[in-house]
Write a structure and sequence with these properties.
Layout lengths: L16 E3 L16 E3 L4 E4 L12 E4 L3 E4 L7 H5 L8 E2 L1 H9 L6 E2 L3
Parallel strand pairs: 6-7
Antiparallel strand pairs: 1-3, 2-3, 4-5
Length: 112
């Protein structure tokens, strides 16, 4: 199992911004429109739980225990690109920051 499937800290820390052409009401878009909200003429973000701490509407499960993304196959590009080596236990600064905010230990650092 990937460390990401027992973490979810990034999904409960960072708000995901995406280009409106990624939304499924646009030709070729895949992210469900009902899970997004506009933040500009060509930008949107994933909806989240109001207030602090923020949590992506597509996140399922308990942070630090077992989590999943309800739209994993259709997730935004920003999610696909976030901490690309976290799935193999190699953290980066943003991943480790999210983990710290949820009182989880950092992943092994990337080799210098």
């Amino acid at each position: 199992m990937s460390p990401c499937q027992s973490c979810g800290a990034c999904c409960a820390t960072y708000r995901v911004t995406l280009h409106s052409d990624e939304i499924d009401d646009m030709p070729g878009g895949r992210v469900p429109a009902g899970l997004t909200e506009p933040i500009g003429a060509q930008l949107a973000c994933m909806r989240g739980k109001a207030g602090a701490p923020w949590r992506c509407i597509a996140l399922r499960g308990r942070i630090g225990d077992a989590v999943s993304c309800a739209i994993y196959e259709f997730r935004p590009q920003a999610c696909r690109e976030f901490a690309p080596l976290a799935a193999v236990s190699r953290g980066d600064e943003a991943c480790d920051d999210a983990r710290r905010r949820h009182r989880l230990p950092p992943l092994r650092p990337l080799a210098a």
